[in-house]
Structure formats: C-alpha cells, structure tokens
Design brief:
By secondary structure, the protein is α+β, with helices and mostly antiparallel strands. The chain has four domains: about 80 residues, no CATH class; about 90 residues, no CATH class; about 100 residues, 3-Layer(aba) Sandwich (Aminopeptidase); about 80 residues, no CATH class. It is about 55% helix and about 10% strand. A five-stranded antiparallel sheet has the order 1-2-3-4-5. The termini are far apart. The N terminus is likely disordered.
Length: about 400
C-alpha cells in the first residue's frame, strides 16, 4: 500500500486573514484644518467631537473600518475648503443613516454632491435611505455602461427631484428599493412636465469657435456641476425665481466644456455675476470674454420679447374692439309679444344694444372693461343691477325667460 503525502499548505492560507484597519489620520487632518481639534488632541477627542455632532457609534465604527474610503467619493470636491471636515462627516453620517454596510459607489457619491450643492446644508436634506436603494441597484448592474447610464440619468434625475420636491415614500416603497422610487419619479414627471425648469430669453447660439448653451433645469445644473466639478446647483432657486441665468460654454470642435457663466438681475438690468472654469478656476481670456456678449445678448433678447408681447397685447385689444364694434352694428329684434310690455325707450335701447349685450352674456364676446365685467356679473345674479342699462336688460331677460338666455 502506497502512502501519498499531501504537500503542506502555504503559510498564508493556514493563517486566518486579519481585517485591515484603515488609518484615520486624513480625517484627523481635516478636523485640524477646520480647527475642530488641535494637534495635541488624540483620536479619543476626535471621536467625542464626531459623536457630539450627531455621528452615531455605528458611524464611528464605519469610519474606523473604511477610513478615507468612507468619504473618498466627495474628497476631490471638498479637499482644501474650510468646510471639508463638516462635509466629510455629514456624508459618512448620511450613508450610515441609510443603512449602507460599505461606502456608496464613488460614481454615485460624486454626482450626489453635485446635485445637492452643499451636502451639510440642512435645507437640502435628502432622505438617507435612498443611498442604500441606489447602491444596491448599482451593484445589481454588472455592465459598466449600464452603471454609467444609471448614474448619469436615473440617479441624478431622482436626486434633483427629491431635493426640490421632497417626496414622501411609505415603508413598502422603501422596502421595494430603487425601482419603486424611480416609478414614483416617472409618475410625478408625467403629471408635472414643466416642473423644475425655467425659461431663458436667450436661446443657444454659436460665437466663433464656442457654443453657448443656456441651462434651464435643475438637472442641467447638476450635469454642469458634475462636468465642471463646481457647485452650480446652489443657484437653482435663484434661477426658479427669475433673478439668475446660467450658461455653459463649450468648444464646438470637441464639445469640451470650458466655462460656466452666470448673470444676475439687478433691478431691471442684467450684470455678469461670475465666470468659472473647472474646479472654480479662473478661465482663459477668450472664453471668459463671452460673459459681456451673453449679458448684452440676453438683455437685447429680453427687450425684444417684451416689445413683441406688448405688440401682441395691443393687437388683441384692437381685435377685441373691432369685434365689439361689429356686434354693436347688429340690430336686435325684440319679440312682438314683449314690445307692448316695454316702453319706447327700452325697446329702442334693446334694438340698438341687444345683440352686443347678448354676445357678452353668451360669452361669445369677451369684456374689455370693468363695466362690461360688472354687467356679466349682474346677468348671472352675482350683483344687483344699478345702471339704467342693467335694469332694462334684467327686466327684458326676466320677461323673455329662457328665450332671451
């Protein structure tokens, strides 16, 4: 009988793997830069600061387990800013509040902060349960292209919707996950096709080698913010109010975005507010020079639209007056059976004005002054007749009954 000896297992396989403990030094550096702690303070002080700010013990364990990876997705957007520690902490607290077991996919995290503007701003609070719903859906998508499409479209559309509308989901919808949330968004968008959008008096145009595109929705701002890595989304409310307009400038030949230009309304005038390149850097002189062109073109286009609206309003008034004159020229026949019950002056008034008044009562003719509006209210019983004309018509209307209506 031959004895076969198995080769000894490698040492690495024989030893149980030890979980790697991430360093919190970077997080500590952010805290010191924000002057939350000093160089003399240890990790215990940092832990107490985090717990006092609202981070749970589970959140602190999350930080210990993943370290810098817990907020790496938003780090390029916050590093070097005075609020970096607060935003990193808020992002970790938000993820843990949603029930994620590991940091959310970086692609989702980067686009998330572009949609929110300032993550720690309580006015832009977003239900943290959407983090787990989206991250679970992300990991179910195995194809990279499907993941990119989900992050670029569905995720950003739903986040801007939740940010602006603040929808409420029940427990069953949260349990159903991302598909239920997205279905609710599609249903809302079908009922509110023009919501979260605004009008730009200046349409898209080309200027030399550059293309200028107005940003006219919250989704547009989120996409621009992601491309340019700045928080343009914070201007959504001003755009909704009509006091701010934003434009994306790109190279026609390559389609590469170069600058984002914002103009603000000061009284009746538009002025350049800011011109920013990627990561809020000062842009090159040539694309930056488009700011004055956009400001001038926007003011000119807005003035042109105002004049056009004024002309249309004048034409509507003139056409309405012409319709009234046409009705006034018509003769109204008073039934023979009612002539004997009316005086000669009343019959004369009705023959001269009856067709015109009948047109107002039947709403075939729109009123063009307050007196006519009042006359219609009298005929509907809303007001009592006061003028002689109103009294004559009401008398005739009651006598004629349904014939005169």
């Amino acid at each position: 009988m031959q004895l076969i000896l198995e080769p000894p297992a490698p040492l690495e396989a024989a030893v149980s793997p030890i979980k790697h403990r991430h360093s919190l030094e970077h997080f500590r550096d952010l805290a010191m830069a924000s002057e939350v702690i000093s160089e003399k303070d240890d990790m215990g002080v940092l832990r107490n600061v985090c717990l006092e700010s609202g981070m749970t013990k589970a959140g602190w364990r999350f930080m210990n387990r993943y370290g810098k990876d817990a907020y790496a997705a938003i780090l390029p957007l916050i590093e070097g800013t005075k609020n970096a520690f607060e935003m990193a902490s808020a992002y970790v607290k938000w993820q843990c509040g949603g029930g994620v077991k590991a940091p959310m996919a970086s692609e989702l995290g980067r686009r998330l902060i572009m949609c929110l503007g300032d993550f720690y701003d309580t006015e832009m609070y977003l239900d943290s349960r959407v983090a787990k719903a989206a991250d679970d859906h992300w990991h179910k998508l195995t194809h990279p292209e499907k993941r990119q499409q989900f992050a670029r479209k569905e995720w950003m559309q739903v986040i801007t919707w939740m940010r602006d509308v603040r929808p409420v989901f029940d427990r069953n919808q949260w349990r159903s996950g991302w598909p239920a949330i997205h279905r609710n968004f599609l249903k809302w968008r079908k009922l509110n096709p023009a919501a979260n959008t605004w009008h730009s008096a200046l349409p898209a145009f080309d200027q030399g080698e550059f293309h200028v595109q107005p940003l006219t929705s919250s989704y547009d701002l989120a996409q621009e913010g992601y491309r340019m890595q700045h928080c343009v989304m914070t201007y959504a409310r001003l755009c909704h109010a009509g006091t701010y307009r934003l434009f994306s400038v790109s190279k026609i030949s390559s389609g590469k975005p170069l600058v984002t230009i914002g103009i603000s309304k000061d009284g009746n005038y538009w002025k350049i507010d800011q011109i920013k390149g990627r990561l809020n850097r000062d842009p090159q002189a040539e694309p930056a020079g488009l700011g004055l062109i956009i400001q001038r073109k926007y003011a000119q286009e807005e003035e042109r639209v105002k004049r056009l609206k004024t002309l249309k309003r004048i034409r509507r008034v003139e056409n309405l007056r012409a319709e009234h004159e046409a009705y006034r020229r018509k003769r109204f026949k008073v039934p023979d059976g009612l002539r004997s019950q009316l005086g000669d002056e009343e019959v004369g008034f009705l023959e001269e004005n009856g067709a015109w008044l009948s047109g107002l009562v039947s709403e075939k003719l729109q009123p063009n002054d307050f007196g006519q509006v009042r006359f219609i209210a009298v005929t509907k019983g809303i007001l009592r007749p006061k003028t002689e004309q109103e009294q004559i018509w009401v008398k005739y209307w009651r006598m004629a009954g349904s014939t005169a209506r």
